[in-house]
Amino acid sequence: MKFLNLVPIDANYTFRAMLQTLSRPGMIEALALSDQSQCLPETALMLALIDVETKFSVISSLDDIDAQVWARLLGSASGAPIAELPNAEWVLSFGEPSARDLNSLARGSANEPEAGCRLIVTCDNLEEFASEENLETTEKTANDVAKHQSTTIALRGPGVNGEITLHVVGLSENFFNTLAQVNNSFPAGVDVWLCDQLGHLAAISRSTEFSVMQVQEIVA
C-alpha cells in the first residue's frame, strides 16, 4: 500500500462508530468501508480523527509492521505531525504495546482530562463473549508457531448496562492490567479502541472499570 485514502462518507461513518463504541464500552461495532477508501480499518480510525493540528505516533510489536513507514503514510494522508510518544494526542499500536509504551502516554489531569491520549490497538479477534472453542487450549505439534494470547475481561461503569464480557484474542492479561493502572486516576487517563483483523471495533473508556476474567493461550 503506497498511500492511504479515506473518503468523506467513510470518515463520517467511522467517526460515528468510534463515538458509539466509546459511549458503550465493550460493545462491538463492525466497520464496513466502501471501495473508494484505500486503507485498513485501524488506519481508517486514525484518518477519521487526525488532521494538521493533531500530533500522532505509531508503534508496533509485530515483526512484519514497520511503525515508521506507517507513520509516514498516515502523516502524508492527513497532514498531521508525527510526535514522540509522550506528546502524541493519538497513537496507533500495531499489536500489543509494551508496558513502558503504555506508561509513556499522556494522561491529562483532573483539570485537563482532554489532554489524555487516545490509543488504537490492533488485535486478532473480538467477541462479546468467550466461545467454548476459544476457552479451550488446543494442543498442536511443535511445528505450529502461530500462538496468541487470549484474554476475557468484564467491563462495568458508565455506558455499560450492568456488566458486559469482552473476549480479546491477541492481547495479553499484562496489557489490560497495565491499562487499569494507567487509568486509575479518572478523569485523567487514556481512551482505548481495539480493532481486530475483520474490522470489528470495541472501546474501553478511561471511566470504564474492568477486570480480567481468564487468560488462555490458543493456537491459530
What attributes characterize this protein structure?
single chain; 220 residues; alpha/beta; Rossmann fold; 6-stranded mixed β-sheet; 4-stranded antiparallel β-sheet; disordered C terminus
What's the helix and strand layout?
Layout: H1 8-23, E1 29-30, H2 41-47, E2 56-60, H3 67-78, E3 90-94, H4 99-104, E4 118-122, E5 125-127, H5 132-135, E6 147-156, E7 164-169, H6 173-182, E8 191-195, E9 200-204, E10 209-219
Parallel strand pairs: 2-3, 3-4, 4-8
Antiparallel strand pairs: 1-9, 5-7, 6-7, 6-10, 8-9
Explain briefly what this protein structure is.
This protein has 220 residues and is of the alpha/beta class. The protein is built from six helices and ten strands; from the N terminus they run αβαβαβαββαββαβββ. It has a single domain (8-219), classed as Rossmann fold (3-Layer(aba) Sandwich).
Amino- and carboxy-terminal Cα gap: 26 Å
| Regions with little confidence, pLDDT below 50 for 5+ residues | 131-147, 215-220
What is the helix content? 25-40%
- Can you count the beta strands? 10
Count structural domains.
Answer: 1
Strand adjacency order, main sheet: 1-9-8-4-3-2
Radius of gyration: 17 Å
CATH architecture title = 3-Layer(aba) Sandwich
- From the 3D structure, determine the CATH topology: Rossmann fold
CATH class: Alpha Beta
Strand content: 25-35%
**Topology pattern, helix = H, strand = E:** HEHEHEHEEHEEHEEE
Overall geometric form: globular
On the 0 to 100 scale, the average pLDDT is 89
User: CATH H-level name... which superfamily?
Assistant: Bacterial phosphonate metabolism protein PhnH
